[in-house]
Every structure is written in C-alpha cells, then in structure tokens.
Write a structure and sequence with these properties.
CATH topology of one domain: 3-methyladenine DNA Glycosylase II, Chain A, domain 3
Largest sheet: 2 strands, antiparallel
CATH architecture of one domain: Orthogonal Bundle
Helix content: 25-40%
Structural class: mainly alpha
Number of helices: 6
CATH class of one domain: Mainly Alpha
Strand content: 5-15%
Order of helices and strands: HHHHEHEEEH
Strand order of the largest sheet: 1-4
Distance between the termini: 96 Å
Number of strands: 4
Shape: flat
C-alpha cells in the first residue's frame, strides 16, 4: 500500500514538472498590436467590415491585409484612432461597408406580428434575441449592438431599428466644434 502511494506521488511530481516545463517552453504570446487595435474597435461583431468579428478584422489590419476604414459602427472616431495608432493616413469610411450611424440604435421586435421563424436568431452575432421556433421572439436590449443584421432575414418585417433612449447611462457630450469650424460658421 505504501509503495503504491509513493509511486503515485512520484508520478504526480514528474508529470507536474513536465507540465510546468511545457507551459513555459510552449507559451503562446499574442500580438500586442492586434490587442490594441481590437480594443479600439466597437465590438459589435456585425461583420460589416467583411470579417466575422472585430478580432479577425484587427488581425487583418495588423497584417496590413485590410484597410482601417471598413468599420461603420466605429465610424470616423474609430478610423481616426486607428490612423493615430498605426501612423496611417486618415481616410473616410468606405461606403461599400455601410454608413456611419449618428446615434446608437437597438432592434425592436413587434411581438404580435412575429411568427417565430428563428431567422433573426440565426443572424444575430451576439445572441441578443430570445425565442424559440414558432414562438414569439424578443430582443435583449442590453445585449443588442445595433448591427442591423437581424432586419433583412425577417420574412414578416416585424423588426425595426430605433435610437437608444437617452438617459443617464447613455448620454454623452456632443463633440465640441473645432476653432476652424467655428471661424467658418462665422464667415
């Protein structure tokens, strides 16, 4: 009995040392530039940029396989932040990827009209739609990123995008005008 306990203890120590060595030797280090780019992106996971989410788009930007102006949800402010980070020229949003929304939106389902087809659930990249087949669906507003991907597949057109109601948690200062814009408006 004592030899079995000692043998198992010795095996545990040997395997522990091997795992510790492997963890140090084969450690995978992520690209810090991709992490910085991903932190700037809006995390809507909408795919409007042509990539399945913000992280793959960040990887493409870092490897110079994608341009910095492909993110409609991020808009001009994201493009400017990416240009500053990467020392690239500032470009306008690529119209092929969509248009910038001036106000954050959220999807709303007209529940009495909903037929429960689940096409909107399949289209939602962030699982913000709750429902089951042949049952009414609803939007979890706190999870909805306003990407607009659930609207086109709906066969009964019961989904609309509405601006997020402004309250204490969503209100933001508007961007101040630059001195150049003020002087131009005075002329």
């Amino acid at each position: 009995m004592l030899t079995a306990i000692l043998a198992l203890g010795a095996l545990a120590i040997v395997f522990g040392l091997l795992l510790g060595f492997a963890a140090i030797q084969f450690k995978i280090v992520g690209d810090p530039l991709v992490d910085k780019i991903d932190a700037i992106l809006p995390q809507t996971q909408c795919g409007q940029c042509g990539y399945p989410g913000c992280r793959p788009y960040a990887q493409a930007i870092a490897s110079e396989g994608a341009d910095i102006n492909q993110c409609p949800p991020g808009g001009e402010s994201t493009i400017k932040a990416l240009a500053d980070l990467l020392n690239r020229p500032l470009k306008p949003l690529n119209p092929e990827n969509g248009v910038e929304q001036k106000h954050k939106t959220v999807a709303i389902i007209d529940e009495p009209i909903c037929i429960g087809c689940t096409l909107c659930i399949q289209a939602c990249p962030v699982d913000a739609i709750l429902g089951a087949a042949k049952q009414m669906h609803t939007i979890i507003e706190s999870e909805c990123t306003g990407c607009d991907l659930c609207v086109p597949p709906c066969p009964v057109e019961c989904i609309t995008m509405v601006p997020v109601k402004e309250d204490v948690t969503t209100w933001k200062w508007s961007n101040p005008k630059t001195m150049e814009a003020v002087s131009e408006s005075l002329q």
